[in-house]
Amino acid sequence: MARILVTGGAGYIGAHTVYFLLRAGHEVIVVDNLCRGHRRYVDPARLRVLDIRETRPLAKLLRQEAIDAVIHFAAYAYVGESMEKPEIYFDNNVAGTVSLLNAMTETGVRYLVFSSSAAVYGVPREVPIPEDNPVAPVNPYGESKAMVERMLTWMDRCRGLRSISLRYFNACGVEPGSGLGEEHDPETHLIPLVLRAARTGEPVTIFGDDYATPDGTCIRDYVHVSDLATAHLAALDWLLQGGPSEVFNVGTGKGHSVMEVVRTAETVVGKQVPYQIGPRRLGDPPVLVASPEKIQRTLNWRPVYTRLEDMIRTAWEFEKTRS
Ligand code: UDP
Questions:
Q1: Which of 22, 35, 190, 219 is close enough to 287 for a disulfide, judged by CB 3.0 to 4.6 Å?
Q2: Is the pTM of this model over 0.85?
Q3: In the CATH scheme, what is the code of domain 3-169+224-250?
Q4: CATH 3.90.25.10 assigned to 190-220+253-290+300-320
Protein backbone atom coordinates (compact mmCIF):
# COMPACT_ATOMS: atom_id res chain seq x y z
CA MET A 1 0.00 0.00 0.00
CA ALA A 2 1.32 3.40 -0.97
CA ARG A 3 0.03 6.96 -0.87
CA ILE A 4 -0.43 8.13 -4.44
CA LEU A 5 -1.20 11.55 -5.87
CA VAL A 6 -2.95 11.31 -9.24
CA THR A 7 -2.99 14.47 -11.34
CA GLY A 8 -5.77 14.55 -13.92
CA GLY A 9 -7.58 11.82 -12.02
CA ALA A 10 -10.97 13.15 -13.15
CA GLY A 11 -10.19 12.37 -16.79
CA TYR A 12 -10.90 9.21 -18.76
CA ILE A 13 -7.64 7.30 -18.24
CA GLY A 14 -6.83 8.94 -14.90
CA ALA A 15 -10.16 8.00 -13.32
CA HIS A 16 -9.84 4.43 -14.53
CA THR A 17 -6.39 4.23 -12.99
CA VAL A 18 -7.71 5.60 -9.70
CA TYR A 19 -10.39 2.91 -9.76
CA PHE A 20 -7.72 0.18 -10.08
CA LEU A 21 -5.39 1.81 -7.53
CA LEU A 22 -8.16 1.78 -4.94
CA ARG A 23 -9.01 -1.82 -5.75
CA ALA A 24 -5.36 -2.70 -5.19
CA GLY A 25 -5.50 -1.09 -1.73
CA HIS A 26 -3.57 2.12 -2.40
CA GLU A 27 -4.46 5.44 -0.79
CA VAL A 28 -5.26 8.00 -3.50
CA ILE A 29 -5.56 11.78 -3.67
CA VAL A 30 -6.68 13.32 -6.97
CA VAL A 31 -5.60 16.74 -8.20
CA ASP A 32 -7.63 18.05 -11.12
CA ASN A 33 -8.57 21.56 -12.21
CA LEU A 34 -11.78 20.10 -13.74
CA CYS A 35 -11.32 22.15 -16.92
CA ARG A 36 -11.73 18.93 -18.92
CA GLY A 37 -12.23 16.32 -16.22
CA HIS A 38 -15.48 15.11 -14.70
CA ARG A 39 -16.23 15.86 -11.07
CA ARG A 40 -18.50 12.83 -10.79
CA TYR A 41 -15.63 10.46 -11.66
CA VAL A 42 -13.95 11.22 -8.33
CA ASP A 43 -15.03 10.59 -4.74
CA PRO A 44 -15.35 14.14 -3.30
CA ALA A 45 -13.32 13.10 -0.25
CA ARG A 46 -10.29 12.45 -2.48
CA LEU A 47 -10.62 15.38 -4.89
CA ARG A 48 -8.54 18.53 -4.60
CA VAL A 49 -9.55 21.04 -7.27
CA LEU A 50 -6.22 22.55 -8.13
CA ASP A 51 -4.21 23.41 -11.23
CA ILE A 52 -0.81 21.69 -11.42
CA ARG A 53 0.73 25.04 -12.33
CA GLU A 54 0.01 26.19 -8.77
CA THR A 55 3.28 24.94 -7.32
CA ARG A 56 2.85 26.19 -3.74
CA PRO A 57 -0.47 24.50 -2.94
CA LEU A 58 0.72 21.41 -4.81
CA ALA A 59 3.86 21.16 -2.65
CA LYS A 60 1.78 21.69 0.46
CA LEU A 61 -0.52 18.86 -0.56
CA LEU A 62 2.36 16.47 -1.29
CA ARG A 63 3.77 17.17 2.17
CA GLN A 64 0.49 17.12 4.09
CA GLU A 65 -0.66 13.88 2.51
CA ALA A 66 2.79 12.24 2.86
CA ILE A 67 2.69 11.22 -0.80
CA ASP A 68 5.02 8.40 -1.89
CA ALA A 69 4.55 8.66 -5.66
CA VAL A 70 2.77 10.68 -8.32
CA ILE A 71 0.91 9.42 -11.38
CA HIS A 72 0.69 12.34 -13.75
CA PHE A 73 -2.16 12.49 -16.29
CA ALA A 74 -3.09 16.17 -16.18
CA ALA A 75 -2.63 17.50 -19.71
CA TYR A 76 -4.41 18.61 -22.85
CA ALA A 77 -4.68 15.80 -25.36
CA TYR A 78 -6.11 16.95 -28.68
CA VAL A 79 -3.69 16.74 -31.59
CA GLY A 80 -5.75 19.08 -33.78
CA GLU A 81 -6.12 21.69 -31.05
CA SER A 82 -2.38 21.53 -30.41
CA MET A 83 -1.72 22.57 -34.00
CA GLU A 84 -4.04 25.56 -33.59
CA LYS A 85 -2.95 26.61 -30.10
CA PRO A 86 0.53 25.19 -29.46
CA GLU A 87 1.21 27.60 -26.60
CA ILE A 88 -1.54 26.17 -24.40
CA TYR A 89 0.02 22.72 -24.83
CA PHE A 90 3.44 23.96 -23.81
CA ASP A 91 1.93 25.86 -20.91
CA ASN A 92 -0.30 23.14 -19.49
CA ASN A 93 1.61 20.01 -20.47
CA VAL A 94 5.20 21.20 -20.19
CA ALA A 95 5.15 24.16 -17.75
CA GLY A 96 2.52 22.28 -15.71
CA THR A 97 4.92 19.36 -15.39
CA VAL A 98 7.80 21.69 -14.46
CA SER A 99 5.61 23.01 -11.64
CA LEU A 100 4.84 19.46 -10.51
CA LEU A 101 8.54 18.54 -10.63
CA ASN A 102 9.39 21.60 -8.55
CA ALA A 103 6.83 20.60 -5.96
CA MET A 104 8.15 17.02 -5.93
CA THR A 105 11.77 18.11 -5.60
CA GLU A 106 10.95 20.46 -2.76
CA THR A 107 9.07 17.79 -0.84
CA GLY A 108 11.35 14.85 -1.66
CA VAL A 109 8.77 12.79 -3.59
CA ARG A 110 10.94 10.56 -5.76
CA TYR A 111 8.66 8.50 -7.99
CA LEU A 112 6.64 9.52 -11.01
CA VAL A 113 4.58 7.62 -13.57
CA PHE A 114 4.03 9.82 -16.60
CA SER A 115 1.34 9.60 -19.31
CA SER A 116 3.26 9.80 -22.52
CA SER A 117 1.98 8.95 -25.96
CA ALA A 118 2.75 7.13 -29.17
CA ALA A 119 2.52 10.66 -30.61
CA VAL A 120 6.19 11.09 -29.62
CA TYR A 121 7.15 8.84 -32.56
CA GLY A 122 5.52 10.98 -35.24
CA VAL A 123 5.63 8.90 -38.41
CA PRO A 124 7.48 5.81 -37.16
CA ARG A 125 10.52 4.35 -38.90
CA GLU A 126 9.36 0.79 -38.30
CA VAL A 127 6.14 -0.99 -37.31
CA PRO A 128 5.54 -2.58 -34.79
CA ILE A 129 7.25 0.35 -33.08
CA PRO A 130 9.95 -0.42 -30.52
CA GLU A 131 10.79 2.14 -27.83
CA ASP A 132 14.12 2.95 -29.49
CA ASN A 133 12.38 4.21 -32.63
CA PRO A 134 13.43 7.85 -33.05
CA VAL A 135 11.39 10.38 -31.09
CA ALA A 136 10.23 12.79 -33.79
CA PRO A 137 6.80 14.24 -33.04
CA VAL A 138 4.80 15.83 -35.82
CA ASN A 139 2.52 18.02 -33.68
CA PRO A 140 2.83 20.16 -30.52
CA TYR A 141 0.91 17.61 -28.47
CA GLY A 142 3.49 14.90 -29.22
CA GLU A 143 6.26 17.45 -28.75
CA SER A 144 4.95 18.38 -25.30
CA LYS A 145 5.09 14.70 -24.28
CA ALA A 146 8.58 14.26 -25.75
CA MET A 147 9.81 17.37 -23.93
CA VAL A 148 8.58 16.04 -20.61
CA GLU A 149 10.21 12.66 -21.26
CA ARG A 150 13.51 14.44 -21.84
CA MET A 151 13.12 16.53 -18.69
CA LEU A 152 12.51 13.35 -16.75
CA THR A 153 15.79 11.87 -17.99
CA TRP A 154 17.62 14.85 -16.51
CA MET A 155 15.59 14.83 -13.32
CA ASP A 156 16.77 11.26 -12.81
CA ARG A 157 20.44 12.05 -13.47
CA CYS A 158 20.54 15.28 -11.49
CA ARG A 159 17.95 14.70 -8.79
CA GLY A 160 17.51 10.96 -8.54
CA LEU A 161 13.84 11.24 -9.46
CA ARG A 162 12.78 7.84 -10.81
CA SER A 163 10.12 7.79 -13.48
CA ILE A 164 8.31 5.56 -15.91
CA SER A 165 6.95 7.13 -19.08
CA LEU A 166 4.13 5.11 -20.59
CA ARG A 167 3.64 5.75 -24.29
CA TYR A 168 -0.02 4.96 -24.83
CA PHE A 169 -1.37 3.79 -28.12
CA ASN A 170 -5.15 4.13 -28.71
CA ALA A 171 -7.01 3.96 -25.40
CA CYS A 172 -10.57 2.72 -25.68
CA GLY A 173 -13.40 1.03 -23.80
CA VAL A 174 -14.80 1.49 -20.31
CA GLU A 175 -14.36 -0.64 -17.19
CA PRO A 176 -17.69 -2.43 -16.67
CA GLY A 177 -19.43 -1.51 -13.42
CA SER A 178 -17.03 1.31 -12.64
CA GLY A 179 -19.51 4.13 -13.26
CA LEU A 180 -16.87 5.72 -15.48
CA GLY A 181 -17.08 6.49 -19.18
CA GLU A 182 -15.32 8.00 -22.16
CA GLU A 183 -16.68 11.52 -22.52
CA HIS A 184 -14.56 14.02 -24.34
CA ASP A 185 -16.00 17.34 -25.39
CA PRO A 186 -15.73 17.54 -28.30
CA GLU A 187 -15.40 13.82 -28.91
CA THR A 188 -12.74 13.16 -31.54
CA HIS A 189 -11.93 9.49 -30.92
CA LEU A 190 -12.97 6.86 -33.37
CA ILE A 191 -14.71 4.23 -31.24
CA PRO A 192 -17.05 6.60 -29.34
CA LEU A 193 -17.88 8.35 -32.61
CA VAL A 194 -18.63 5.07 -34.38
CA LEU A 195 -20.89 3.98 -31.51
CA ARG A 196 -22.59 7.35 -31.43
CA ALA A 197 -23.28 6.97 -35.16
CA ALA A 198 -24.82 3.56 -34.47
CA ARG A 199 -27.00 5.04 -31.74
CA THR A 200 -28.12 8.25 -33.42
CA GLY A 201 -28.02 7.34 -37.11
CA GLU A 202 -25.80 10.38 -37.81
CA PRO A 203 -22.94 9.13 -40.00
CA VAL A 204 -19.35 9.08 -38.77
CA THR A 205 -16.71 10.31 -41.19
CA ILE A 206 -13.82 8.02 -42.04
CA PHE A 207 -10.74 10.15 -42.54
CA GLY A 208 -9.35 8.77 -45.78
CA ASP A 209 -9.68 5.40 -47.51
CA ASP A 210 -6.69 5.71 -49.84
CA TYR A 211 -3.85 4.85 -47.46
CA ALA A 212 -1.37 2.12 -48.34
CA THR A 213 -3.08 -0.36 -46.01
CA PRO A 214 -5.06 -3.49 -46.96
CA ASP A 215 -8.46 -1.72 -46.93
CA GLY A 216 -7.14 1.81 -47.45
CA THR A 217 -8.01 3.06 -43.94
CA CYS A 218 -5.59 3.85 -41.09
CA ILE A 219 -4.44 1.15 -38.72
CA ARG A 220 -4.13 1.72 -34.96
CA ASP A 221 -3.31 -0.35 -31.88
CA TYR A 222 -6.40 -0.17 -29.63
CA VAL A 223 -5.72 -0.90 -25.98
CA HIS A 224 -8.43 -1.18 -23.36
CA VAL A 225 -8.40 1.60 -20.75
CA SER A 226 -8.53 -0.99 -17.93
CA ASP A 227 -5.36 -2.58 -19.29
CA LEU A 228 -3.77 0.87 -19.53
CA ALA A 229 -4.73 1.39 -15.90
CA THR A 230 -3.05 -1.84 -14.79
CA ALA A 231 0.08 -0.81 -16.70
CA HIS A 232 0.26 2.21 -14.36
CA LEU A 233 -0.04 -0.04 -11.33
CA ALA A 234 2.75 -2.25 -12.64
CA ALA A 235 4.91 0.81 -13.33
CA LEU A 236 4.25 2.11 -9.83
CA ASP A 237 5.23 -1.21 -8.24
CA TRP A 238 8.40 -1.25 -10.32
CA LEU A 239 9.43 2.16 -9.02
CA LEU A 240 8.45 1.47 -5.41
CA GLN A 241 10.53 -1.71 -5.52
CA GLY A 242 13.58 0.27 -6.58
CA GLY A 243 13.48 -0.26 -10.36
CA PRO A 244 15.31 2.26 -12.59
CA SER A 245 13.62 4.84 -14.82
CA GLU A 246 12.22 3.41 -18.05
CA VAL A 247 10.07 4.19 -21.05
CA PHE A 248 7.46 1.68 -22.21
CA ASN A 249 4.97 1.39 -25.01
CA VAL A 250 1.51 0.37 -23.88
CA GLY A 251 -0.39 -1.36 -26.65
CA THR A 252 -1.50 -4.85 -27.55
CA GLY A 253 0.79 -5.19 -30.57
CA LYS A 254 -2.20 -5.82 -32.84
CA GLY A 255 -3.43 -3.30 -35.39
CA HIS A 256 -6.98 -2.71 -36.60
CA SER A 257 -8.10 -0.51 -39.46
CA VAL A 258 -10.81 2.15 -39.17
CA MET A 259 -13.00 -0.01 -41.39
CA GLU A 260 -12.46 -3.01 -39.09
CA VAL A 261 -13.57 -0.87 -36.14
CA VAL A 262 -16.75 0.04 -38.03
CA ARG A 263 -17.48 -3.59 -38.96
CA THR A 264 -16.73 -4.89 -35.45
CA ALA A 265 -18.97 -2.20 -33.94
CA GLU A 266 -21.75 -3.38 -36.24
CA THR A 267 -21.38 -6.90 -34.86
CA VAL A 268 -21.43 -5.65 -31.27
CA VAL A 269 -24.37 -3.29 -31.73
CA GLY A 270 -26.31 -5.55 -34.07
CA LYS A 271 -27.00 -2.87 -36.65
CA GLN A 272 -25.29 -1.00 -39.43
CA VAL A 273 -23.07 1.95 -38.62
CA PRO A 274 -23.76 4.82 -41.02
CA TYR A 275 -20.51 6.28 -42.33
CA GLN A 276 -19.12 8.49 -45.05
CA ILE A 277 -15.63 8.74 -46.47
CA GLY A 278 -13.97 12.10 -45.94
CA PRO A 279 -10.53 13.52 -46.65
CA ARG A 280 -7.46 12.42 -44.71
CA ARG A 281 -6.89 14.12 -41.37
CA LEU A 282 -3.71 16.18 -41.31
CA GLY A 283 -0.83 14.45 -39.54
CA ASP A 284 -2.40 10.95 -39.35
CA PRO A 285 0.28 8.29 -39.93
CA PRO A 286 -1.10 5.30 -41.90
CA VAL A 287 -0.07 2.66 -39.36
CA LEU A 288 0.69 2.93 -35.61
CA VAL A 289 1.16 -0.38 -33.82
CA ALA A 290 3.20 -0.92 -30.66
CA SER A 291 5.80 -3.47 -29.99
CA PRO A 292 4.67 -4.29 -26.43
CA GLU A 293 7.57 -6.68 -25.94
CA LYS A 294 9.50 -4.47 -23.50
CA ILE A 295 6.68 -3.87 -21.02
CA GLN A 296 5.70 -7.54 -21.20
CA ARG A 297 9.23 -8.66 -20.48
CA THR A 298 10.11 -6.03 -17.88
CA LEU A 299 6.89 -5.39 -15.96
CA ASN A 300 5.21 -8.68 -16.83
CA TRP A 301 2.22 -6.64 -17.99
CA ARG A 302 -0.22 -8.24 -20.38
CA PRO A 303 -3.54 -6.92 -21.62
CA VAL A 304 -6.66 -8.76 -20.46
CA TYR A 305 -8.54 -7.45 -23.50
CA THR A 306 -6.95 -8.81 -26.68
CA ARG A 307 -10.01 -8.85 -28.96
CA LEU A 308 -11.27 -5.62 -30.49
CA GLU A 309 -14.83 -6.90 -30.22
CA ASP A 310 -14.56 -7.24 -26.42
CA MET A 311 -13.10 -3.75 -26.12
CA ILE A 312 -15.85 -2.22 -28.23
CA ARG A 313 -18.51 -4.10 -26.27
CA THR A 314 -17.47 -2.35 -23.05
CA ALA A 315 -17.61 1.01 -24.84
CA TRP A 316 -21.08 0.17 -26.18
CA GLU A 317 -22.38 -0.74 -22.72
CA PHE A 318 -21.46 2.80 -21.71
CA GLU A 319 -22.66 4.46 -24.91
CA LYS A 320 -26.10 2.85 -24.49
CA THR A 321 -26.54 4.62 -21.16
CA ARG A 322 -26.26 7.98 -22.91
CA SER A 323 -29.37 7.70 -25.07
N1 UDP B 1 -10.78 8.52 -37.35
C2 UDP B 1 -11.73 8.60 -38.35
N3 UDP B 1 -12.85 9.34 -38.12
C4 UDP B 1 -13.07 10.01 -36.94
C5 UDP B 1 -12.07 9.93 -35.93
C6 UDP B 1 -10.95 9.16 -36.16
O7 UDP B 1 -11.59 8.01 -39.42
O8 UDP B 1 -14.09 10.69 -36.81
C9 UDP B 1 -9.56 7.71 -37.58
C10 UDP B 1 -8.28 8.51 -37.48
O11 UDP B 1 -7.94 9.04 -38.74
C12 UDP B 1 -7.30 7.44 -36.99
C13 UDP B 1 -8.16 6.50 -36.18
O14 UDP B 1 -9.50 6.75 -36.56
O15 UDP B 1 -6.78 6.73 -38.09
C16 UDP B 1 -8.04 6.72 -34.67
O17 UDP B 1 -8.23 8.09 -34.43
P18 UDP B 1 -8.41 8.67 -32.96
O19 UDP B 1 -8.68 10.14 -33.09
O20 UDP B 1 -9.42 7.85 -32.23
O21 UDP B 1 -7.01 8.41 -32.26
P22 UDP B 1 -5.51 8.84 -32.72
O23 UDP B 1 -4.99 7.69 -33.54
O24 UDP B 1 -5.59 10.12 -33.45
O25 UDP B 1 -4.80 8.94 -31.41
A1: 219
A2: yes
A3: 3.40.50.720
A4: yes
